[in-house]
């Protein structure tokens, strides 16, 4: 029996029903038809499934409509439809073998179609109007070699499976709003673009990771490639999902969480209850949902969720992300693209097989020269080449340098000597900071410089509402003096000027009031403001604290998304120094809901809980801010240990437990010291440190005896007995 694949475009549900009816009739007449509407979403993704079945088929029926013609011929409007370019490519492979082409590929039309919708390589070949009975019989004879169409016998008709196609099968689902907006130009990245193209086509590449320091151009590269993919109808991707973790903050000393990403992504991919389960379980569920279709997943700026340089450098702090990436590197019909400053160590084992890792270099001299010329820099090629070398080919630095010279010095390359040299590490953005220092001098006394200092108050994109609060009267001395009385037209002019200078990110059409900039720009101007204008720094954060704590419509938000402003309120309140107030009124009452632990028990957001708690530490997990009451410090240590243990970060959990025990001893809080020592004993048992576990268990018994608490004494003696048993020692009588 001949195998027949039916290739068609999903113009509309009505058109799909017509195709289905013709397929049903052929099957009823004994023809083995393959149609996507009979299949559940295949593990390898629809494009690969179609490609395989087209190659295996004896005949391919091409249901010709205007949409189908445009897709096969590569003329479809960018960004519209699913695309069937792989089918068109198969046709063109047989273009010079007319016998094969005319034998395998058969144009089929309905009454509503026109012959000009037949793809060019098949023009002039025999085609069939299948809703005309005589032509249907002619098609049947060609497919089967039989002269007559059989009459189906009762009970012998093949039972057709129910239609399995999902509602979203008619078009891709795409969400890229969470990615930063970058410029449209790209220089010297042809090799990397080809690598991306190849990784998308290769079935064995599951994750592609770009690793480079900030400002080298990782995000710009991926965004440029995504624009190319969109112009090509996403080349068979059924779902495209992008997320930037730069919105979680970028400083190494800050704790970040994957909770917001997991909640949003699970909901978008169709999980029935995104709050359900541990972070690890959520990551596993998300991986399974992603694998149900061919998905292009972009995770931009992953480093806030990785450990900074040290013994655990590059490992993921977030269990949900760990589970997701470990699953996707094992099996993924689509492609996951990661950009980060540090290699993700959790998936090192797959490098060279399903993981491809690219260490992105700075721009070549030739590409750097081309970039400077495009920005309006003039001068001899030799001087342009020297400038590129002087700035290390750093993409952000060259962008800022080019716009600075073009704006301030009429593009004269010889004026680059006026850009100061700094002592910052070059690989960590020192070249870019050199140009930012020049901009500070040139923009002094302008609204533009005030706007840049405003950006330094945030560790993520700045919402329009927060910016309005900072611009409001009275002026914040040393920060918003030049913004007072500024008309809306002049405000927009200043913002556009900064965007033209590449100091602010491009306008986000999805959120036009939001302001964003490269993390290196944000960090540079934030450090300058905090150092030079400490009073303005505090006043600005005080306004943001009050803004965010009053932002939720409900005093006690129900969802993680509704609670995000409270997390921001904690961060800004602590920058002002209102640690105890922020803890009591925001964290304890509204985030935790006192002892209900709402954020973890109801929302499952252990990462957000811990990241918010980190704001109360002067030195992470070891030293809370000094203005806390002693009893609050003890609680903070205990909660940090709880959060770290819940997230599987056991070695880190030892730090707050140890510090908490020492704090309790200093306060002669023997009950608290006994609890902390007992927790340290259990933790060390889990880590396999049996000797340390026994030592802490003995201390816990000693402190429990001092406390005089009978329940505590009993609990810690049981703990000691368990530790001794694990070590092989006997409990003393």
Helices and strands in order:
Blueprint: E1 3-7, H1 13-28, E2 32-34, H2 46-56, E3 59-63, H3 66-72, H4 85-93, H5 98-104, E4 105-109, E5 128-129, H6 133-144, E6 173-178, H7 190-201, E7 207-211, H8 218-231, E8 239-244, H9 259-269, H10 279-290, E9 295-300, H11 319-330, E10 335-340, E11 355-359, H12 365-374, H13 381-390, H14 395-408, H15 430-442, H16 447-455, H17 464-471, H18 488-500, H19 519-532, H20 534-549, H21 560-576, H22 579-591, H23 598-601, H24 606-613, E12 617-619, E13 623-624, H25 630-646, H26 650-666, H27 670-687, H28 690-707, H29 710-727
Parallel strand pairs: 1-2, 1-3, 3-4, 4-5, 6-8, 7-10, 7-11, 8-9, 9-10
Antiparallel strand pairs: 12-13
Helix pairs in contact: 9-10, 10-11, 12-13, 12-14, 14-15, 16-19, 19-20, 20-21, 21-22, 24-25, 25-26, 26-27, 27-28, 27-29, 28-29
Q: Can you describe what's shown?
A:
It is a single chain. The termini are far apart. 47% of the residues are buried. The protein contains 29 helices and 13 strands. It is an alpha/beta fold and 733 residues long. The protein has a 6-stranded parallel sheet, with helices on both faces. The chain has a 5-stranded parallel sheet with strand order 2-1-3-4-5, with helices on both faces. It is globular, with a radius of gyration of 31 Å. Helix 21 packs antiparallel against helix 22.
